[in-house]
Design brief:
alpha+beta, four-stranded parallel sheet, 44% helix, 20% strand, elongated
Length: 617
């Protein structure tokens, strides 16, 4: 085909990532291709422009399709583009284009690449160039994916920021102003409320000043892995990639998973009629299926009997059997919960969850916004209805922040420390010894808890209860604690601020006694004496020193006074200069009667003594 006979279609394309690059803009491409046609004497039939579309396989390019249709119909005999990658960036697509050009007898010309498809060598060169181009794309894609993985693992989530979170330095972090809205949704759903019920509650209470909460939004929140700290990319293309623990969670993984299990029931108005203490915590030792809860009601005695069963293997275990097997352990957990979570953590948590500086900054921003909408109303930009609606929304947000600031202010007035945890646990033990009836009146007892409270304790602290089969019956094999609880507990224990029960043989006034005794790790002697003097503000408590012999595993200490009861033992030194045969130990003890209590009885349950100044040591 002679040059003077060429009728050309000029193909122009930019993708979104190319638009800012010099030489790839649409006007620049058009100008250079027109100059080529003028120099060669080619006739321009039409311009075919795809803006903002990549040449990757699968992308729809309407103008490119029109160009090929015109070539097939003989309207043009030459396709001209600035570069080879304007036409295609895939070897597969390029081969198809070459076959099409041969079949319908049109040529392909690329101005910058000096492409000539009329010869075998020319076609081979284009294939080589296309391979290089595709390799570059694939390498860029790989680098992008690696960079994205690293960014996600650091909390840079490439998604719309959901309610409950906000972006700080491009990272998703919990938003103290909205996270409680999300947490409450999970709790309401776990309690048995349906999506529509929760939406109705939020609409009635005008949460965030809105009355358009829908069950679909509640479902979307409950399904979002971000709220348990994880992220899943590639959902929309059915190529999910899971990233664990990339953001700070708003709810525990256990609560999130339990809500997903409840969703599978797919009953819009499902409401659990009974509370099962060990729900979702038991698996069949044979088939590993989660045991379902069941209950029977004996009308004669008006009593409910609860059990758990495997639907496949048809075996079951009574709830009472599980409780009896682990009652001592459950009592210890409840004791820990009473002291750490009920007494201290709410205070510490309020300080962490309601950062004063951030709340004050948000309050200032809302007050400024309030002033702006008032001015807009005065200037007739807002109608009275719009103004009142916006004002109500802002007033509700201001009220919420002021409430959190009040909590923060109250928390700052309470100076609880980790040292107080051990003190409160020792006081609880002393009160149990001296005032057993009053102790159980003031403190929770596992047997007296209602089913909802028991289930809450199990949910918070226990990951699962392992079962095994013995003599044809299911029995408890092992309790597995949630890692978060175990880590928190172990950290306090390692630092000496909490105790564990451990078996110990000690010399009790000349007689060796085998017992389970409260044991804590080393604290400096100054802290021990501070602790002792604080206890003595309320009771008569004595400190005894002794020696623990590792070879015989016996503690020689005392002698204790008559009717004295050991409170707790602990090392008085971190190590023994390399001598592993013995260790210096201390023991706190008190008498098992209330006659030495120095304060009002109510005070020993409801308060803790202040720190003692060093001059009292």
């Amino acid at each position: 085909m002679k040059d003077e006979e060429r009728i050309c279609g000029l193909y122009l394309r930019v993708s979104t990532e190319d638009q800012a690059k010099e030489g790839f803009s649409l006007p620049e491409q058009k100008e250079r291709l027109e100059a080529l046609c003028k120099f060669k004497g080619y006739k321009i039939y039409d311009y075919y422009t795809d803006a903002g579309i990549s040449a990757k396989t699968g992308n729809h390019r309407p103008e490119f399709d029109r160009l090929i249709d015109d070539a097939k119909n003989g309207k043009i005999n030459t396709v001209i583009a600035l570069k080879l990658d304007r036409l295609s960036r895939s070897i597969y697509d390029w081969e198809n284009l070459l076959k099409t050009s041969e079949k319908y007898r049109f040529d392909l010309v690329c101005a910058n690449d000096d492409i000539n498809t009329t010869t075998a060598n020319g076609k081979m060169v284009t294939r080589i160039m296309m391979s290089v181009s595709q390799n570059e794309i694939e390498r860029t894609s790989e680098r992008t994916k690696v960079g994205m993985v690293g960014a996600i693992k650091q909390g840079h989530i490439p998604a719309v920021c959901p309610i409950g979170f906000k972006r700080v330095d491009k990272k998703l972090v919990p938003d103290p102003l909205t996270k409680d809205i999300v947490i409450r949704i999970f709790n309401l759903y776990f309690e048995g409320n349906s999506y529509s019920t929760i939406a109705n509650i939020y609409n009635k209470e005008k949460i965030q000043g809105k009355t358009n909460w829908k069950d679909t939004r509640i479902l979307k929140i409950l399904s979002n892995e971000l709220y348990k700290g994880d992220y899943v990319s590639g959902k929309t293309i059915n190529k999910p990639v899971y990233y664990e623990n990339v953001v700070e969670p708003l709810v525990s993984k256990e609560l999130w998973e339990n809500c997903q299990a409840q969703r599978k029931k797919n009953q819009k108005n499902y409401m659990r009629t009974q509370t099962y203490i060990f729900l979702q915590k038991l698996r069949c030792p044979k088939c590993r299926r989660i045991l379902a809860g069941g209950a029977t009601h004996k009308i004669k005695y008006d009593k409910w009997y609860f059990y758990y069963r495997c639907e496949d293997c048809k075996n079951n275990i009574k709830e009472e059997t599980i409780e009896n097997s682990v009652k001592t352990l459950l009592s210890d957990i409840l004791e820990y919960d009473n002291v750490v979570n009920e007494f201290f953590l709410p205070v510490l948590k309020s300080k962490l969850d309601n950062p004063k500086q951030e709340l004050e900054k948000e309050l200032k921003s809302l007050n400024n916004k309030k002033g702006r909408i008032r001015k807009a109303y005065i200037d007739s930009i807002f109608t009275e209805e719009e103004y009142r609606s916006e004002l109500e929304l802002i007033e509700n947000q201001i009220k919420d922040i002021n409430s959190k600031l009040l909590e923060n202010s109250q928390a700052e007035q309470l100076n609880f420390t980790t040292e107080d945890i051990l003190l409160k646990r020792d006081m609880d033990f002393i009160n149990k010894v001296k005032l057993p009836i009053s102790y159980y009146a003031f403190n929770d007892n596992w047997d007296l808890l209602d089913r909802d409270d028991k289930a809450d304790i199990i949910m918070r602290y226990i990951d699962d209860v392992e079962l095994e089969t013995k003599n044809g019956k299911l029995v408890v094999k092992q309790i597995n604690f949630r890692s978060t609880f175990y880590n928190d507990f172990n950290e306090l224990y390692t630092k000496g601020y909490i105790d564990k029960k451990r078996p110990l043989t000690y010399d009790f006034n000349g007689v060796y006694v085998d017992t389970n005794i409260r044991y804590s790790e080393y604290l400096p002697i100054k802290d021990v004496m501070q602790h002792l003097y604080r206890l003595n503000e309320y009771y008569e408590v004595n400190l005894y020193k002794g020696t623990y012999y590792k070879e015989t595993e016996k503690l020689d200490i005392g002698p204790l006074q008559r009717n004295e009861v050991p409170i707790r033992v602990f090392p008085l030194q971190k190590d023994n200069n390399g001598d592993n045969n013995w260790l210096s130990m201390g023991m706190l003890a008190t008498k098992n009667n209330p006659n030495d209590i120095k304060v009002n009885i109510r005070d020993v349950f409801e308060t803790i003594p202040d720190n003692v100044t060093e001059e009292n040591f």
